[in-house]
Design a protein that fits this description.
Length: about 150
Amino acid sequence: MVLDFEGLLDFKPVDTQFQVRGVTFSGPIALRPSNPAFPAHSGSMVLLAPQEARKPIEAIFSEAVSFIGVWVTASRPVVMSAYDAAGELIAQTELPEANLGYPGTELTPNQFLSVRAPGIRRVSFVCNDGNLVLDDFTLYPAPTPMRAEATV
């Protein structure tokens, strides 16, 4: 499933808009970027972590997922962390440097960050003292265990 954020209202908090799809967000606002350093990956709408809040963007899942990927553009390094239902860290990756696409930077905008682990219930994106936008949030549900059945 891909959440592309199109149809959200510009400059409005994003929290329960995707609850029917099993995802609740904490922290971001929807934004149609006017700064070319922060382009959307697709369409025109992204999630922005308001710098003044100094809080991460978090996504909480009503059911466990096994994969999360998102296109990231940031002015500073970003750490993406996945947690299980008990709040234990189970996977982590990072964007090691800014990727605004300015001359002299090695990374282009919209780098794909992803984590894969069984039982992910929450993911956070931290960009200390920087600006961060996310687009095309992709997730796969955790596999359903198969029941053993006997036939005679």
